[in-house]
Amino acid sequence: MPYSEGRGEGRFPGTEGVAQAARIVRQGGIVAFPTETFYGLAADPFQEGAVERVFRLKGRPEGKPLLLVIADLGVLGRVVRKVPTAGWRLIDAFWPGPLTLVMPAAPGLAAQVTAGTESVGVRMSAHPLAQSLATRCGGAITATSANRSGAPPLSDPDAVRQAFPTLFLLDGGPLAGGSPSTLLDLTRDPPRLLRPGAVPAEQIFRLLQE
Questions:
Q1: Which pLDDT belongs to residue 209?
Q2: Could you tell me the residue ranges of all domains in the chain?
Q3: Any alpha helices (H) in 115-210, and if so which ranges?
């Protein structure tokens, strides 16, 4: 039976925690996990039911796409149909790191991941637990912030536990917080900044103009 929101409760650090968290995600459940900025909610982006549970858990309005974290560049072809030339330059400069690139989505993702936009936001996280979890989950996980919709993102594991007491928490300790990942739309030419964040927009556009 797939995990539901109330299954797989716990709070574990390290390798043992990653293995258990990955098992929950593969079986259709949701776990909270650390990134280099804030905690996120991981689900399998190819499982419709798992993605629907993320929306219910957060109280997230339909029509808002979910961002993904991938394990390595070899996974890109599973989630992205095409990487623009500008995308490769930005990937070389800023990945792994807090820069999310919106690109044309590959077929097979759960419908609510793209929310009808035919595009998907993707990044590689520099946090080793996020990378390890994505690897053990087949290469890609959802990475929406671990908060109720409209509430601030959370960098403290105790706050995550309070917000989602029944979720498995992959505990990475207190995180840096600050700004979320920068969100850049590469489906347009020229690229468009959708959300300022941890990677300064000035650095991004300076690189693209070189």
A1: 94
A2: 10-85+107-179
A3: 128-136, 157-163, 201-209
Q: Which pLDDT score, from 0 to 100, does residue 11 have?
A: 59
- Cα–Cα distance list, 101 to 58, 68, 131, 139, 196 (Å): 23, 10, 17, 17, 12
Q: Taking the complete model, does pTM exceed 0.90, yes or no?
A: yes
For 94-126, how does the pLDDT look when each residue is reduced to its tens digit (9 = 90+)?
999 999 999 999 999 999 999 999 999 999 999
- The DSSP output letter for 4 is -
Q: In the prediction, which pLDDT does 3 show? A: 36
**Positions in the chain whose pLDDT score sits under 50:** 1-8
Pairs from 47-51 (Cβ < 8 Å, separation ≥ 24): 47/110, 48/110, 48/111, 48/112, 49/2, 50/2, 50/25, 50/110, 51/110, 51/111, 51/112, 51/113, 51/142
Question: Using CA atoms, how far apart are residues 31 and 164, in angstroms rounded to an integer?
Answer: 10
Q: Which pLDDT score is estimated for 5?
A: 42
Between 3.40.1570.10, 3.40.50.2300, 3.40.50.300, 3.90.870.10, what CATH number should domain 10-85+107-179 receive?
3.90.870.10
In degrees and rounded to multiples of 5, residue 120 shows phi and psi of -145, 140
Helix, coil or strand: residue 60: coil
Cα-based distances in Å from 205 to 4, 185, 200: 42, 12, 9
